[in-house]
Amino acid sequence: PDTVRITALKGGDISIERHFTIREGDTVNLVITKFDSHVKIVEKKGVVGAGADTEHLGLAMVSCIGQRWYSYRYESEVTGKWCAFEFTNVAGNNKEVEMRL
């Protein structure tokens, strides 16, 4: 399944990861915008390079001060899929959310 996995780390930081497949030669950049309790992550198509792998692991770290509730939106301009979810960054919390069209 096409999912995003979010994990709260010690100290309140958050790890976000997503496995995905893209066309050979494409690359993807993750752009994160954080404002107050809202976090938006967008996969943007990057520079095309010959012979690049097609299996990718998108990985992002979001620094947070203190434990609190956050609202997330994860979008892919590459695949057109997205997901939205809420998460509290208490160490050990984790969640897996399915991407949809």
Notes on the protein architecture:
The chain is mostly beta strands and 101 residues long. It has one domain. Helices cover 0% and strands 57% of the residues. The protein is built from no helices and eight strands. It has strands spanning 3-8, 14-21, 28-35, 38-45, 55-62, 69-76, 82-88, 94-98. The strands form two sheets. The chain has a four-stranded antiparallel sheet with strand order 5-2-1-8, with no helix packed on it. Strand 3 (28-35) and strand 4 (38-45) form a beta hairpin. It is elongated, with a radius of gyration of 14 Å. The mean pLDDT is 85.
Most strands sheet: 4 strands, antiparallel
- Order of strands across the biggest sheet? 5-2-1-8
Q: Which H/E pattern describes the elements? A: EEEEEEEE
Name the structural class: mainly beta
User: What proportion of the residues is helical, as a percent range?
Assistant: under 10%
Tell me, rounded to a whole number, the average pLDDT: 85
Nearest-angstrom radius of gyration?
14 Å
- Based on CA inertia axes, which overall geometry fits? elongated
Strand % is over 45%
Number of contiguous helices: 0
Number of domains: 1
Count of distinct strands:
8
N-C termini distance: 13 Å
Contiguous low-pLDDT stretches (5 residues minimum) are none
Short description:
By secondary structure, this protein is mainly β. Helix content is about 0%, strand content about 55%. The strands form 2 sheets. It has a 4-stranded antiparallel beta sheet, with no helix packed on it. Strands 3-4-6-7 form a 4-stranded mixed beta sheet, with no helix packed on it.
